[in-house]
Amino acid sequence: LNMFDQLSSALTEVARNFGGKQRMTETSIQPALKSVRRALLDADVNLDVATALIDGVRRRSLGREVMKGVTAEQQFVKAMYDELLDMMGGGVVAMGDDDDDDDDGNFDDAAAGGRGKRNKMKMSTSSLPPPAATLAYRGPNEVGPSVILLAGLQGAGKTTAAGKLALYLKEREVDSYAVSGMSDDERSNTLASRLPKRNRRVLLCAADVYRPAAIEQLEILGRSIDVDVFSLGTDVDPAEIARLAVEKARAGGYDTVVVDTAGRQVVDEELMEELRRVKRAVKPDETLLVVDAMTGQAAASLTAAFDSAVGITGAILTKLDGDSRGGAAVSIRGVSGKPIKFVGVGERTQDLEPFYPDRMASRILG
Ligand code: GDP
User: Fold this and answer.
1) N or C: more exposed end of the chain, with fewer CB within 10 A?
2) Long-range residue pairs from 346-350, CB within 8 A, at least 24 positions apart, any chain
3) Counting atoms of ligand 1 from 1, which one is nearest the CA of 217?
4) 153-186 tens-digit pLDDT
């Protein structure tokens, strides 16, 4: 099933309006923009984000000659693709909090390293796109482990994501690049520095003290992926649990701690205050909000709310496998300024992938 059936049919409609014209005019693109806008809103894309996308496509298209060898609608779709890509973060997103400075839409670095086809008509996804998911890593020589704090509402898939992330970080990198014929140098120049460092020694920390079942769930998950879980039951303060987990990690030679925190039904000040306290206690390198893709643009406003209340470095978008609209994926960065770093694509622990904006843009356009 295509994620944006609506958008695909809108673009088919677009094709009819452009028959044989050599220059894109307001009259020739207006109906197209209108149906694309409707499709975006139906897909639950945030209104401001939809408006920005449409404005961008208009700017990229209006008055342009139709390039040789392509049709007007292909060019229009390419403009749409570029806008979606910019909106979702384009190429590499810098580590930690530094991701804000690429909001100017300048993704040349990414193009140089990955697709490298930004200004051409090609928009098929390369096998080597740079992932947005760069996770801060202190490295083995620094003092103390890297800490990744997970936050989110209950049911978003936070505990599952903790297990998935632990497995992802613990695994060795799959050397799928060897088959693409790149030399080692090329590979390390374009990729190695951008991929989240893996082959880590991970300790999971159960700091959701309100649901005993959540602790047990994490312990079971940990056993199934052979990752140690630190827990102290439900009677200890979450900030203290997290602090002690980091201490244990330092003493035990773990290089990464993934902290699963409590979720609530709604955003409340108590939850935010607890998160701030856990943050102060462990000074995480990454604070990732786990959000459910099925909630559409609400996921985007939730990300913005968590960011202003506790400060986050990015999002993990879960249940993308069940999302047929795409509103969350398209809206999150535009609304919150924070990148999606990973996506959950199923219930199993291996169902986690780095977020590739270019693949998502291609999928959306069908
Ligand atoms: P938490 O309350 O945020 O810790 O949520 P859980 O980790 O317990 O997950 C809630 C439900 O969502 C469980 O049934 C999970 O199996 C399911 N789930 C989590 N992530 C995904 C995902 O990426 N895809 C699908 N289809 N289900 C997911």
Assistant:
1) N
2) 346/321, 347/160, 349/160, 349/163, 349/164, 349/167, 349/221, 349/224, 349/225, 350/164, 350/167
3) 8
4) 999 999 999 999 999 999 876 544 444 555 666 5
